Description:
Elements: H1 3-29, H2 33-42, H3 47-65, H4 70-95, H5 99-118
Amino acid sequence: xxxxxxxxxxxxxxxxxxxxxxxxxxxxxxxxxxxxxxxxxxxxxxxxxxxxxxxxxxxxxxxxxxxxxxxxxxxxxxxxxxxxxxxxxxxxxxxxxxxxxxxxxxxxxxxxxxxxxxxxxxxxxxxxxxxxxx
Length: 134
């Protein structure tokens, strides 16, 4: 692929990801109604944590959109990953269903897309220690 195509794919996926994160965090900044019902009543999160994690997602989304500052972007991607992984774990734990298999496939898919999303083209993990599934 050409460098221009890779750059375009990087910015399109980054904008879509940041947009999703902003869209999902805005209702939690000052939780009311259905947001409070799902996150506090169903999942059991404290209200102060809902606001905290929503503001952190907004800051992380802004950080991945700023050109340069690679270390800050790296930490922002890590924080957003932990947020998404925590959300998946919370829903699986509360619902106690077999969606864990589906979630593990989604996590594997995200890890396979990491070189494209990060723009590095490199696997962040040591290839010798990872299990590869056909």
